[in-house]
Specification:
Helix content: 25-40%
Strand order of the largest sheet: 2-1-3
CATH superfamily: Ribosomal protein L7/L12, C-terminal domain/Adaptor protein ClpS
Order of helices and strands: EHHEHE
Oligomer: single chain
Largest sheet: 3 strands, antiparallel
Radius of gyration: 26 Å
Distance between the termini: 73 Å
Structural class: alpha+beta
Number of strands: 3
Number of domains: 1
């Protein structure tokens, strides 16, 4: 006596690719009473590629409000720019505080 077993396997596989854009981070300059405004303007032009006019406006905002967002980037770029500005500031003897925070 021969018994045949028939097995049917149905596989429904769904693969869902979830691609998320990398998070954005704000680079923030804080005001202090020792870092010259011209130096801050220079950093904003050289490191962040702001126009001279925009850099002056941001510097005044930092001075008047205590801090300002000077750029928004993916984490690695925000961190690199913050470190670069801090390094340049310390080399010149200025205590400029630069922070990054998630947008």
């Amino acid at each position: 006596m021969s018994v045949e077993l028939e097995t049917e396997i149905n596989v429904k596989e769904r693969i869902k690719d979830v691609v998320q854009e990398p998070g954005k981070y704000k680079v923030i300059f804080a005001n202090d009473n020792e870092t010259p405004m011209d130096f801050v303007v220079g950093l904003l032009v050289d490191v962040f590629r702001h126009s001279n006019e925009t850099a002056k406006e941001l510097t005044m905002r930092i001075h008047e409000k205590g801090s300002a967002v000077v750029g928004v980037y993916v984490f690695e770029i925000a961190e690199q720019k913050a470190v670069e500005c801090t390094k340049i500031s310390r080399e010149q003897g200025f205590p400029l505080q630069v922070a990054i925070e998630k947008e």
